Amino acid sequence: MSMMSEFKEFAMKGSVLDLAIGVVIGGAFQKIVDSMVGDIIMPVVGLLTGGIDFTNRFLTVGGGTFATLEEAKKAGAPTVAYGLFLNQVLTFLIVAFTLFLVIKGVNRMRRNEPAKG
């Protein structure tokens, strides 16, 4: 068996195609989640916390005062960007909860299928 035919057999297996489809859909889903966190959830959280913009919350390590995270990074100042970290944690929690709901739904459908045989 030639290397090309082995590769074709490998690539055409159902699990590889399923994985490829999952990666593409996951990439698109990530953009939706990023938008939901950045454009919908974080502004509401900022409003509830007195107008704090979490994407611009940071600590400068080693001194220096900067108005924005971008200014600090341009100046080469070492920073702890905890606001960006909070956004990423929130994004992860949304993705994890969504996957939990999807898996729960799939498992429920599997249980309800009539026995084959």
What would the keywords be for this entry?
mainly alpha; two-stranded antiparallel sheet; Non-ribosomal Peptide Synthetase Peptidyl Carrier Protein, Chain A; 4 helices; 117 residues; 2 strands
How are the secondary structure elements laid out?
Elements: H1 3-11, H2 14-48, E1 59-60, H3 69-74, E2 79-80, H4 82-112
Antiparallel strand pairs: 1-2
Helix pairs in contact: 2-4
Description:
The protein is mostly helical and 117 residues long. It is built from four helices and two strands; from the N terminus they run ααβαβα. Helix 2 crosses helix 4. It is elongated, with a radius of gyration of 22 Å. The two termini are 36 Å apart.
Name of the level-1 CATH class: Mainly Alpha
H/E order of the elements? Answer: HHEHEH
Oligomer: single chain
How many runs of DSSP E, i.e. beta strands?
Answer: 2
Kindly name the structural category.
Answer: mainly alpha
Please tell me the CATH architecture by its name: Orthogonal Bundle
Low-confidence stretches: none
Largest sheet: 2 strands, antiparallel
Helical content stands at 55-70%
CATH superfamily: Large-conductance mechanosensitive channel, MscL, domain 1
